[in-house]
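Page 37, continued from 36.
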């Protein structure tokens, strides 16, 4: 890695998150976009970044392949599960740190992440909002402190979202399960319908709402006898995720190979 500049390649640069990360990278001291990678055949391929993001954008063109002479310290991936394997392979090939917010990964892809961490620094998160990272920490602590309370997780996203529950909701569920020392797969319940009977102790319930242009809302409900705690996070601007990814890219550039957590970057930026 350069002593003064961290070179970042953005994989999935044509998508909403890829575009948001390119905007968030503007005027970041010590960070430089070295590549904006899009799929072959993309309408953006070959176009200057300045056509899309104005004169303040790097003097680069969107490209469908990484120039072998282009320096890359960190590869930031927000592509999609279909393109994830190629993104991870490229990071390994270039010995670049890997920051990914791609959700909907298969078990095979998750194992590939773990294996890659033996060779390069890896940070995967379902959500790069620093507020959500703190919510994960609070969820874990609350679950540990209140092991017998009922826990429900409610999330809402825009009507175009393809998966349910959201990756963030599942990560929150994992945090609750970790706090209780159980496996999420043994206690997760996804929605309820019909005559379900009395709620068993220890369930972690998930409920997904879809509508409008909601960027992302997540609420954890811990309900006990005569009292209830609700922990909520609401994102009103997609750029919060991009800013968190940029903080992660800056942080991970100095780390050793391994599987790192977004929890580690709390306190690194406002």
């Amino acid at each position: 890695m350069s002593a003064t500049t961290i070179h970042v390649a953005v994989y999935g640069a044509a998508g909403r998150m890829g575009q948001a990360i390119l905007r968030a990278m503007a005027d970041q001291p010590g960070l430089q976009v070295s590549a904006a990678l899009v799929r072959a055949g993309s309408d953006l391929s070959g176009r200057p970044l300045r056509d899309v993001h104005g004169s303040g954008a790097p003097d680069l063109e969107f490209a469908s392949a990484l120039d072998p002479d282009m320096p890359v310290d960190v590869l930031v991936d927000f592509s999609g599960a279909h393109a994830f394997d190629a993104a991870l392979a490229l990071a390994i090939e270039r010995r670049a740190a890997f920051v990914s917010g791609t959700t909907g990964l298969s078990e095979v892809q998750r194992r590939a992440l773990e294996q890659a961490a033996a060779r390069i620094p890896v940070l995967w998160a379902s959500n790069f909002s620093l507020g959500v990272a703190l919510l994960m920490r609070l969820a874990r602590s609350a679950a540990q402190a209140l092991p017998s309370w009922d826990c429900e997780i409610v999330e809402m996203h825009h009507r175009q979202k393809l998966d349910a529950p959201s990756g963030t909701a599942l990560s929150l569920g994992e945090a609750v399960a970790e706090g209780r020392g159980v496996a999420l797969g043994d206690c997760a319940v996804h929605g309820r319908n019909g005559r379900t009977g009395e709620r068993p102790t220890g369930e972690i319930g998930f409920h997904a709402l879809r509508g409008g242009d909601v960027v992302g809302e997540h609420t954890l409900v811990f309900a006990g006898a005569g009292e209830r705690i609700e922990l909520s996070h609401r994102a009103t601007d997609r750029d919060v995720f991009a800013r968190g990814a940029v903080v992660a890219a800056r942080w991970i550039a100095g780390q050793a190979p391994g599987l790192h957590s977004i929890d580690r970057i709390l306190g690194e930026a406002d």
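Helices lie at 16-25, 49-53, 81-94, 107-116, 130-145, 167-180, 239-252. Flag for discussion at group meeting. The chain has a mean pLDDT of 93.
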